[in-house]
């Protein structure tokens, strides 16, 4: 019995050792030589493999970064500046800070604001619905509500609100990878600057129809009246094709556009205080009055000069 | 225009088919064989059938509603079909708690973990049966017939003809000795007692199969290739040595050959999609069954054959596609 | 010859030809018509008139916007009120020419008599010009400009002209009625097309469920005595009227993937197109009218019609003339129930290719909820192109473009047989249509890149 025991243990131990040696030798012989920095960079990557950077996963991003001469054409939206700094320090590059972004759904055509005029009975996919027709409401540009954006988000940051029929972005989970922007066939979702302490302004409408047509279809539509563009003192708003657009790089969050918008199509989010529309409107009026006075005074001064010279 | 019309992509009409209707047709097709076996084996058989079906349905309902928290899928009647097929593979004297365990394996091991209907790789009823055969060999091979509603002559007590045959051959006997000793005639294989319900009535099974053919539910080339292969192999081997190898009719009519070939190998989910794939699948099953019957230690090989060929189905689906328009 | 049919797939919906006994009625004129500039495949037409212009019936109001495009003519006499975007069937804005109707004054060049003109002009080029000038497009649904199809590229020879009298879609009866009421004009039109194509064989394919049409067309062919023309009975099966399926059935040849019918020597035209060619060449009448069927399931007989309409009439106006939308209608379709488009905007104007307004009841048309695929293969059995829709559906969900191309998603003819026959009510075609578009995009991009590379290489070698 004891002899059997000894033989068994001995044979199995030797077998184990031999096999281990073979595996070790194979691993050494067939190892792919790679720049060790690729592993280092990959370690600091978020590891989500979401493709938001445009590469096929975090390792592909690391590979490209190591092989590149600079990091100008690469950015990891999930890791943001923090990760990019780490990557830069590993590779000895410098990388400029980039303002964090978040996905913004630029449509407020809720079920109550935008009545349904027909009933869609096809597969629940925005892409299919958009290819079929102009939608089940009077607005041909608005959210179709089938949730392609929700399905595309790998971080669970989007969900459909059953009451409004619109997608909702969870800012704590959104990594601005851009998957939802590509999934939306109506190009309603846009990556915009997150803003200081999360405060940002945007026009929640992309309807390019003329004002009366848009308003008939949806109570929250932008009618392209241009009041916002006229009011904005920072040159941030343009009205093209009957719809206003706020340039987030120029917006200073003064909220004057939000106050003057007749349909409530401009939204400010994450502001600590509720917008006092009357107060802001008064401020605008005062400023305009002062400007008018100043202009009059300047004109009078000009006249005086001319008279004096003339 | 206040009325909201429906809008969808084309097509705008649909054929009058559904998964439930297909399963209902299969249940109807199994009815002749079920009826015969209840008549032959009485209350015990009825109880086995009821417990099997009820267990399968309840388990599927419970798992989908409570565990997965999704709408229940029992409405498509596939659990009922699985329950019936499982029961038809079991002896009527089997303890009911074993039937329940079989149902657990069918539904909660072979079907739902893979993703439910349409996603399973292995035929659920067969998986359940094989599990029981391996786990409870004594009860699964106790073919003592229970009291039926009709008294049928030539009753054999004990093992199925295949089991007895195996024993006879192992102990050096010949087939003709086996036939004589046990008083078998060819007609007795249509009332092949001491067997499970599925083995019992070849005629009833064929009747059901014809119904499925008329209703266009089943792909006929799979059973044809299974039975054809079995017939060819049996003809060759029994032609060479009729005393050691059983003939064509014996093989086609005994064991789970007909039930397996007609009703279980033709299961949509676990059989190949293309015609050529299906024929190869059938040939494979036929070969494996005959090898097990002639050379293996199990008397019955249909279940194992089907399970083994189920493994090859994804590959067959990858290799064989139907002919496309305009492509040589 | 016995009855012919195509070699794979197909389904058998109930043919529901409830409007077959309704003779073609001519509609009165509305107050306004809206003539769309996008009534054909290819580039939209460019308006030639201006607001305030007076127009007569048959006058040119728009010219082709590209090689694949067509002329558009005024269907009424009156004044042009506007040239502006207006919503089409799907609710998308398209430029329409709005004409206020005044009287019914026709262009004097048009021969409005009912006399049959059988003498066919000799000059092929002149015939093609007339067809082009008349704005004739294929009236089988695709609205491909006829003068382009009837003028094969150099090196391609037409061996057989197949006239599609199958009308395989359920409910539609407009082709059936014109075959019964105007068979001789259709036959002359076919002879004209035969001449243009160089004198090839002509086969008029008609499904077996239209015995009166078969008889009428056979008699017309025999009486008129044009060479090399015959009527062929086809089995009743959907999609028998599909171009590729007709070529398979009649010529026993199959068009290769990505190829055109002319590659196998076939030219397929609808019988209504043949009628339009007759009117264009023999009567100088441009394509401004067509026949549409108003029908549906559970619709009383008095609400069913076959109307001769003028393009530009709003669908809502035609429906009103027909007796209004019945209570039971839950979905309105323009076209057949298998490949037609659901109408989301009934105010849309009719176009050259309009073929019907179908009223489908809730029970007939509402989709049941989708369940799991049971791998029954009925979709693959039904596909007339031999594809495997269950596989294409899975590949689309997995976004596997290579797999989709390898499994020929681009060959899909969008007939709807797969979704029609699926027991699990899976929205197969909805997904495959998207897959097809994506794969075709990839193929086109690849071809463009290859062309650019070839040109760059040529330029390099020339240097």
Q: Briefly, what is this?
A:
The complex is a heterotrimer of chains A (about 300), B (about 325) and C (about 475). With about 300 residues, chain A is of the alpha+beta class. In chain A, about 40% of the residues lie in helices and about 10% in strands.
SSE topology:
The complex is a heterotrimer of chains A (310), B (328) and C (463).
Chain A: H1 2-29, H2 36-44, H3 58-67, H4 80-91, E1 101-105, E2 118-120, H5 126-132, H6 148-152, E3 158-160, E4 167-169, H7 179-183, E5 189-193, E6 200-203, H8 211-217, H9 227-231, E7 237-240, E8 243-246, H10 256-260, E9 266-269, H11 277-309
Helix pairs in contact in A: 2-3, 2-4
Chain B: E1 5-7, H1 19-67, H2 78-88, H3 96-108, H4 124-135, H5 137-140, H6 161-170, H7 175-181, H8 197-200, H9 202-214, H10 221-240, H11 248-253, H12 257-264, H13 275-295, H14 302-319
Helix pairs in contact in B: 1-2, 1-3, 1-9, 2-3, 2-4, 3-4, 4-14, 9-12, 10-12, 10-13, 13-14
Chain C: E1 24-26, E2 32-36, E3 46-47, E4 54-55, E5 60-63, E6 72-73, E7 78-87, E8 93-101, H1 124-133, H2 146-149, E9 160-165, H3 174-181, H4 183-196, E10 201-207, H5 211-224, E11 229-234, H6 243-251, E12 266-270, H7 271-283, E13 289-296, E14 305-310, H8 315-321, E15 329-334, E16 341-342, E17 356-361, H9 362-365, H10 378-382, H11 389-397, H12 401-406, H13 417-421, H14 428-462
Parallel strand pairs in C: 1-14, 9-10, 9-12, 10-11, 13-17
Antiparallel strand pairs in C: 2-8, 3-5, 4-7, 5-6, 7-8, 13-14, 15-16, 15-17
Helix pairs in contact in C: 3-5, 4-5, 4-7, 11-14
CATH fold label of the largest domain in chain A? Alpha-Beta Plaits
Distance between the termini of chain C: 61 Å
Helical proportion of chain C?
Answer: 25-40%
What would the average pLDDT of chain A be, to the nearest integer? 92
Helix and strand run of chain A: HHHHEEHHEEHEEHHEEHEH
Top keywords for this entry?
heterotrimer; B: 328 residues; mainly alpha; 2 domains; 1% strand; C: 463 residues; alpha/beta; Rossmann fold; six-stranded mixed sheet; four-stranded antiparallel sheet; 14 helices; 17 strands; globular
Structure description:
The complex is a heterotrimer of chains A (about 300), B (about 325) and C (about 475). Chain A is built from eleven helices and nine strands. By secondary structure, chain A is an alpha+beta fold. Chain A folds into two domains: about 35-90, Orthogonal Bundle (3-methyladenine DNA Glycosylase II, Chain A, domain 3), CATH 1.10.15; about 100-270, 2-Layer Sandwich (Alpha-Beta Plaits), CATH 3.30.70. Chain A has a two-stranded antiparallel sheet. In chain A, strands 3-4 form a two-stranded antiparallel sheet. In chain A, strands 6-9 form a two-stranded antiparallel sheet. Chain A starts with a helix and ends with a helix. The mean pLDDT of chain A is about 90. Chain B has about 325 residues and is mainly α. In chain B, helix 4 packs antiparallel against helix 14 (about 300-320) and helix 10 runs parallel beside helix 13 (about 275-295). Chain B has 14 helices and one strand, in the order E-H-H-H-H-H-H-H-H-H-H-H-H-H-H. The longest helix of chain B is centred in the first third of the chain and has 49 residues, at about 20-65. Chain B has helices at about 20-65, 80-90, 95-110, 125-135, 135-140, 160-170, 175-180, 195-200, 200-215, 220-240, 250-255, 255-265, 275-295, 300-320; one strand at about 5. The radius of gyration of chain B is 21 Å and the shape is globular. Chain B has two domains: about 20-140, no CATH class; about 160-195 and about 220-320, no CATH class. Chain B is about 60% helix and about 0% strand. Chain C is of the alpha/beta class. Chain C has two domains: about 1-25 and about 115-365, Rossmann fold; about 380-460. Chain C is built from 14 helices and 17 strands. Chain C has helices spanning about 125-135, 145-150, 175-180, 185-195, 210-225, 245-250, 270-285, 315-320, 360-365, 380, 390-395, 400-405, 415-420, 430-460; strands spanning about 25, 30-35, 45, 55, 60-65, 70-75, 80-85, 95-100, 160-165, 200-205, 230-235, 265-270, 290-295, 305-310, 330-335, 340, 355-360. In chain C, the strands form four sheets. A six-stranded mixed β-sheet of chain C has the order 1-14-13-17-15-16. Chain C has a four-stranded antiparallel β-sheet with strand order 2-8-7-4, with no helix packed on it. In chain C, strand 13 and strand 14 form a beta hairpin. The termini of chain C are far apart. Chains in contact: A-B, A-C, B-C. Chains A and B meet through strand 2 of A and strand 1 of B. Strand 2 (about 120) of chain A pairs parallel with strand 1 (about 5) of chain B.
């Amino acid at each position: 019995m004891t002899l059997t025991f000894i033989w068994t243990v001995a044979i199995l131990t030797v077998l184990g050792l031999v096999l281990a040696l073979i595996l070790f030798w194979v691993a050494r012989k067939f190892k792919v030589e790679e720049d060790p920095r690729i592993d280092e960079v990959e370690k600091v990557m978020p590891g989500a493999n979401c493709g938001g950077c445009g590469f096929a996963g975090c390792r592909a991003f690391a590979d490209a970064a190591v092989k590149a001469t600079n990091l100008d054409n690469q950015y990891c939206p999930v890791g943001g500046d923090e990760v990019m700094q780490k990557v830069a320090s590993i590779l000895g590059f410098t990388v400029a800070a980039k303002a964090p972004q978040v996905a913004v759904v630029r449509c407020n055509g809720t079920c109550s604001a935008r009545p349904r005029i027909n009933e869609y009975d096809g597969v629940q996919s925005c892409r299919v619905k958009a290819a079929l027709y102009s939608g089940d409401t009077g607005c041909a540009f608005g959210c179709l509500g089938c949730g392609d954006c929700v399905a595309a988000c790998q971080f669970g940051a989007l969900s459909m609100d059953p009451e409004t029929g619109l997608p909702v972005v969870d800012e704590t989970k959104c990594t601005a990878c851009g998957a939802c922007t590509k999934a939306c066939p109506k190009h309603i979702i846009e990556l915009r600057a997150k803003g200081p302490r999360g405060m940002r302004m945007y026009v929640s409408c992309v309807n390019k129809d003329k004002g009366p047509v848009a308003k008939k279809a949806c109570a929250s539509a932008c009618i392209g009246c241009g009041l916002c563009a006229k009011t904005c003192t920072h040159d941030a708003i343009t009205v093209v094709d009957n719809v206003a657009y706020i340039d987030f790089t120029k917006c200073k969050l003064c909220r004057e556009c939000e106050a003057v918008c007749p349909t409530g199509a401009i939204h400010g989010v994450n502001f600590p205080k509720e917008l006092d529309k009357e107060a802001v409107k008064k401020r605008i009026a005062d400023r305009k009055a002062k400007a008018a006075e100043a202009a009059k005074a300047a004109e009078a001064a000009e006249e005086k000069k001319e008279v004096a010279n003339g | 225009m206040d009325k909201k019309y429906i809008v969808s992509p084309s097509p705008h009409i649909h054929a009058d088919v559904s998964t439930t209707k297909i399963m209902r047709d299969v249940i109807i097709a199994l009815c002749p064989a079920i009826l015969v076996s209840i008549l032959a084996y009485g209350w015990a058989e009825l109880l086995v059938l009821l417990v099997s079906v009820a267990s399968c349905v309840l388990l599927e309902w419970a798992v989908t509603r409570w565990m997965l928290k999704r709408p229940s899928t029992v409405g498509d009647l596939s659990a009922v079909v699985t329950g019936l097929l499982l029961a038809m593979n079991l002896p009527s004297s089997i303890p009911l708690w074993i039937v329940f365990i079989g149902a657990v394996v069918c539904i909660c091991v072979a079907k739902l973990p893979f993703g439910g209907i349409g996603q399973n790789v292995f035929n659920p009823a067969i998986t359940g049966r094989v599990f029981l055969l391996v786990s409870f060999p004594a009860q699964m091979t106790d073919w003592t017939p229970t009291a039926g509603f009709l008294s049928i002559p030539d009753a054999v007590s004990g093992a199925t003809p295949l089991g007895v045959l195996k024993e006879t051959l192992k102990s050096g006997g010949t087939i003709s000795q086996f036939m004589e000793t046990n008083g078998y005639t060819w007609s007795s294989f249509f009332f092949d007692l001491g067997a499970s319900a599925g083995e019992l009535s070849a005629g009833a099974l064929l009747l059901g199969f014809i119904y499925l053919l008329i209703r266009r539910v089943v792909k006929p080339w799979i059973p044809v290739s299974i039975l054809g292969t079995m017939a060819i192999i049996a003809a060759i081997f029994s032609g060479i040595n009729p005393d050691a190898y059983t003939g064509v009719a014996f093989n086609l009519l005994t064991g789970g050959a007909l039930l397996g070939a007609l009703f279980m190998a033709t299961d949509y989910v676990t059989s190949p999609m293309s015609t050529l794939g299906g024929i190869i699948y059938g040939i494979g099953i036929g070969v494996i069954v005959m090898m097990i019957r002639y050379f293996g230690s199990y008397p019955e090989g249909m279940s194992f054959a089907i399970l083994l060929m189920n493994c090859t189905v994804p590959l067959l689906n990858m290799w064989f596609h139907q002919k496309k328009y305009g492509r040589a | 010859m016995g009855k012919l049919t195509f070699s794979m797939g197909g389904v058998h919906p109930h043919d529901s030809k409830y409007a077959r006994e309704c003779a073609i009625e001519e509609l009165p004129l509305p107050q306004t018509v809206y003539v769309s500039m996008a009534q054909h495949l290819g580039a939209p037409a460019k308006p030639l008139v201006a607001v305030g212009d007076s127009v007569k019936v048959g006058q040119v109001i728009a010219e082709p916007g590209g090689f694949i495009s067509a002329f558009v003519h005024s269907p009424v006499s009156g004044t042009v009120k506007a040239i502006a975007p207006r919503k089409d069937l799907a609710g998308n804005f398209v430029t329409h020419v709005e004409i206020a109707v005044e009287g019914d004054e026709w262009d004097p060049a048009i021969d409005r008599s009912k006399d049959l003109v059988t003498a066919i002009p000799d000059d092929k080029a002149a015939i093609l010009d007339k067809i082009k000038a008349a704005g004739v497009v294929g009236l089988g649904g695709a609205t491909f400009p006829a003068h382009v199809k009837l003028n094969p590229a150099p090196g391609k020879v037409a061996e057989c002209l197949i006239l599609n009298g199958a009308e395989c879609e359920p409910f539609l009866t407009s082709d059936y009625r014109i075959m019964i009421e105007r068979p001789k004009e259709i036959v002359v039109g076919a002879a004209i097309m035969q001449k243009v194509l160089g004198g090839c064989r002509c086969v008029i394919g008609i499904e077996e469920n239209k015995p009166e049409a078969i008889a009428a067309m056979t008699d017309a062919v025999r009486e008129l005595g044009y060479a090399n023309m015959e009527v062929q009975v086809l089995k009743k099966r959907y999609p028998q009227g599909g171009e590729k399926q007709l070529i398979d059935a009649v010529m026993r040849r199959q068009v290769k993937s990505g190829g055109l019918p002319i590659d196998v020597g076939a030219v397929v035209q609808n019988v209504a197109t043949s009628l339009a060619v007759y009117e264009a060449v023999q009567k100088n009448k441009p394509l401004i009218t067509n026949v549409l069927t108003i029908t549906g399931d559970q619709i009383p007989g008095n609400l069913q019609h076959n109307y001769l309409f003028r393009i530009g009439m709003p669908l809502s106006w035609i429906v009103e003339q027909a007796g209004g939308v019945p209570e039971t209608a839950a979905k309105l379709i323009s076209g057949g129930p298998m490949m037609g488009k659901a109408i989301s905007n009934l105010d849309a104007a009719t176009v050259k290719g309009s073929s019907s307004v179908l009223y489908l009841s809730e029970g007939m048309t509402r989709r049941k909820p989708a369940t799991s695929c049971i791998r029954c293969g009925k979709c693959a059995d039904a596909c007339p192109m031999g594809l495997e829709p269950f596989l294409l559906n899975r590949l689309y969900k997995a976004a596997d473009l290579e797999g989709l191309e390898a499994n020929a998603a681009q060959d899909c003819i969008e007939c709807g047989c797969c979704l029609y026959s699926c027991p699990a009510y899976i929205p197969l075609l909805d997904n495959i249509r998207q897959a097809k578009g994506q794969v075709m995009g990839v193929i086109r991009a690849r071809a463009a890149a290859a062309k650019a590379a070839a040109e760059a290489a040529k330029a390099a070698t020339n240097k």
